[in-house]
Amino acid sequence: GRSDEALDELVGFFVNTLVLRTDVSGEPTFGELLGRVRDADLAAFTHQDLPFERLVEELNPVRSLGRHPLFQVMLVLQNNDEGTLQLPGLTAQPESFGTPPAKFDLNLTCVENRDAANAPAGITAVLQYATDLFDQETAGLVAERLVRLLGVAVGDPEVPVSGWEVFDSPEQERYFLSRAERARAGAVEAVEVQGHRGPRTAQEEILCAFFAEVLGVPSVGIDDNFFALGGHSLLATRLISRIRTTLNAELGIRDLFRNPTVVGVMEKLKEGRPARPALVAGERPEVLPLSFAQQRLWFLDQLEGASATYNSPFAFRLQGSVDVEALRGAIGDVVGRHEA
Fold it and tell me: With pLDDT > 90 as the criterion, what percentage of the chain qualifies?
C-alpha cells in the first residue's frame, strides 16, 4: 500500500480496504466475472490516496446505526510471507489468546497454503460472524453454501453465474417466498411516504430552514430525510449545533440518525432534554476526568475485554535478556506523552 517510495521505510499499517460492488449483469460466466472483479480492483487501487472522508461524502450512503454504511462483509486473503522479528539474542513467536470481537457482520479470512516445494496446497478459511446477527448454525450454513458455490463455479467455469445452484429445493422456495413478501411490503411503504408536506408550526418552519441551510437546498419538507437529501456526518454535526445555539435545545447525533426528518426531530425536542451547559474555564485537576468516549471505552473494556473498534490485539512471547530499566523508561515515555 505504500504508493510513494518515501514511505517504504516507515513503520505503520498501510493496508487498504477496497469496497467492491460486483457487476453480475449480462449473464457472465465465472471466468468473465473474475475478469470484471480484477479490473474493478485495479481501477480502485489507482485512487487509493483519496481521503476516506471524501469518498463517504461523495457516495453519501444511507446511514444506519445497525450496519457499516459502505460494506458489511469483509474478505481477507493472506498470501504474503509471515513477518518475523529478528533481534540478537531474542526469539519471538505468536501466542493464541482467543478470537477478538467481530468488526463486521461477516469476515472471511483465507490463508493460502504452500507445500515444501512452494507449490499451492489449498486454502484454509475462517468465517468470523457477529453473534448479534448470526448464530453458529446459520454461520455454518453460510460457509457450506460458499463451499458449494465455489465447487459449482470451478467445476464448470463456462456456466453463467445465474445458473449456479446454491440452495437446495426447500431453501429455494423459502427464499423466493421471502423476496415476494418483502416486495409487497415495500410497495405499501412507498405509497405511504409519498408527498411533500410543508411546515405546520413556527418551530417546524425554523427546523425546515435549518435543514435547507445546512444541506444547501432551496426548501425541505417536514417528512424529507436529511441523509437522503445529501446529508452526512459532518453536516449532521453542523445541524445539531444550529439547533443547540438557536433553539437552546439538546439533540444528540444518535437522535438525528434515528429521526432524520423535521417531524422526527420535533418529537425528540418535545422530550425536553436540557440544553448543554455553557463551557467555563476551570482548574486543571490532578487526575483528568474521562470524556464520554473514554468512559465508553473503559466500560467496554471492563465488560468485554479489548475493544474491536479501537484496538487490534496481538500477543507475543519474547525470550532473551531484558534490560528492565530501559523497558521501564520506554513505557514511562509513552505514558508521559499520552496522559489519557
Answer: 26
